[in-house]
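Hi, here's the filled form for the chain we discussed.

Project: internal
Contact: R.S.
Residues: 227
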Amino acid sequence: RVLKLAKRWNWLACGVLTVAKRGGRYFVVDGQHRLMAALKRSDIDRLPCLVFESAEMREEAVAFRDANKERRPITTFEQWNADRVAQDESTLFAHAIITNAGRSPSQTAGPATVRCLSAVVAASRNARQELCRVWPLTVRVCQGNALHERVFGALMYLECNLIDGQSIADRRWREKIERLGYKGILDAAHRAAAFYAKGGPKVWALGVMQELNKGGRTHTLSMRGEG
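And the returned structure, exactly as it came back:
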């Protein structure tokens, strides 16, 4: 993107950079790509800027998030970083449980990262008690693998929608889930998505619930609205 901007420089499209002045230093809040593109050109040594006094980094993070939301959809990782610097409580909680599990927030999926950041933050904000019960199980099931959104989404949806006080964190179901394992959960979620011709946490959870209930007659899991 920077190379494209540098090659096809357009002053009208450039507009102005939004800059925060804090502690005698200047920080580009909006316009980093335009700045990097200009630095690659020998014919540009100044850019028009709007400079605002800033008291703290948190204020700048909020400004970055809000400014970019109006212009283009910001990436999940950009949203994550901005909200963390802005001290969003739900994001900070999500960051804590991710790092305590020995993983790091990332734009890429891997055995030591977590990519489904928006899902973890949403759970932190809207269903924290359920998240605290499901997260350790999710981490164990995904050990050595990417923490897949389908695994996390299926287990979270189950925990939030089981009836009669049921919980997948209870020993009986926790052990069955661990035996089903990473691949088993993904396969169950995939089969359900193919059957219903759509995805999403509810569909993935239905697939996993069906697998967990196999061979059971009396002690089975049931979700609200599923009869």
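Let me know if anything looks off before we file it.
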